[in-house]
Amino acid sequence: MVKHIESTAHADLFEELKQVRSAAIEHYTEAIRLSKERRKLIDRLLTEGFSQADVARELGVTRQAIQKMMAAGQ
C-alpha cells in the first residue's frame, strides 16, 4: 500500500529530505576529490624524501594512519 502525501507538513518534510540528500551527495563527491588530492600531496612529500613519520607528525596522526591511507589508495 502506498502512502500519499496528506498535508503541507508532509510535503515540507519530503522537500527537506530531498535537500539534505542532495547536500550529502555533494559533500561525498567533494570528500572523494579532496581525498585524492591529499594522496597526491603525500606522494609528492614522500617522493621528495620525507618519511611517513614526518608526514604523520605534521598532520598530527600516527605513521600507521599514513601507511594505511597509502595502502588503501586514499
* Rg from alpha-carbon coordinates: 21 Å
Identify the quaternary structure here: single chain
- Unreliable stretches (pLDDT < 50, length at least 5) are none
Overall mean pLDDT: 93
**What is the terminal-to-terminal distance?**
44 Å
How many distinct domains? 1
**Helicity level:** over 70%
How many DSSP H or I helices? 3
Per DSSP, what share of the residues sits in E-state strands of 2 or more residues? under 5%
Biggest pleated-sheet summary: none
What does this structure look like?
Helices cover 78% and strands 0% of the residues. It is rod-shaped, with a radius of gyration of 21 Å. It starts with 7 loop residues before the first helix and ends with a helix. It has one domain. It is mainly α and 74 residues long. The model has no long low-confidence stretch (mean pLDDT 93). It is built from 3 helices and no strands. Helix 2 packs across helix 3.
What labels describe this entry?
74 residues, single chain, 0% strand, 3 helices, mainly alpha
How are the SSEs ordered, and which strands pair?
Blueprint: H1 8-47, H2 52-59, H3 63-72
Helix pairs in contact: 2-3
Keywords: Transcription, Transcription regulation
InterPro entries: Fimbrial_Adhesin_Reg, RNA_pol_sigma_r3/r4-like, TrfB
Protein name: Helix-turn-helix domain-containing protein
